[in-house]
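Tokens in:
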């Protein structure tokens, strides 16, 4: 697969670190990271990543609120939502707004890679 560029968005530094390691171990490129939806929009506009992994629950602006704006400033970007268990209704809302897939915390590498291949092959 060609070099896929990622923006990793999560308010928890630990979760960003775990996900970045999974991505770089799979030979993907992480071009940036953000801790909330406002930063994610700004970075998506600047970096034009192929995929944004977007946490649902964050301060200042959550992932659901950020979806429309990210797709507005970076229309070719695919969004994979990151959710905790029990956030099914939020994931459904995110998919309706334009997210292409979701992964559940704690992250399982096989599921993360499956979600990436799913969105890149659409």
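Residues out:
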């Amino acid at each position: 697969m060609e070099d896929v560029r990622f923006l990793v968005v999560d308010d928890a530094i630990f979760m960003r670190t775990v996900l970045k390691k999974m991505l770089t171990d799979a030979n993907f490129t992480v071009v940036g990271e953000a801790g909330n939806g406002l930063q994610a929009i700004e970075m998506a506009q600047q970096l034009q990543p192929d995929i944004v992994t977007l946490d649902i629950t964050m301060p200042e602006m959550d992932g659901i609120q950020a979806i429309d704006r990210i797709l507005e400033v970076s229309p070719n970007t695919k969004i994979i939502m990151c959710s905790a268990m029990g956030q099914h209704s939020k994931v459904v809302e995110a998919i309706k707004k334009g997210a292409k897939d979701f992964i559940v915390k704690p992250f399982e590498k096989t599921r993360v890679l499956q979600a990436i291949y799913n969105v890149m092959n659409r």
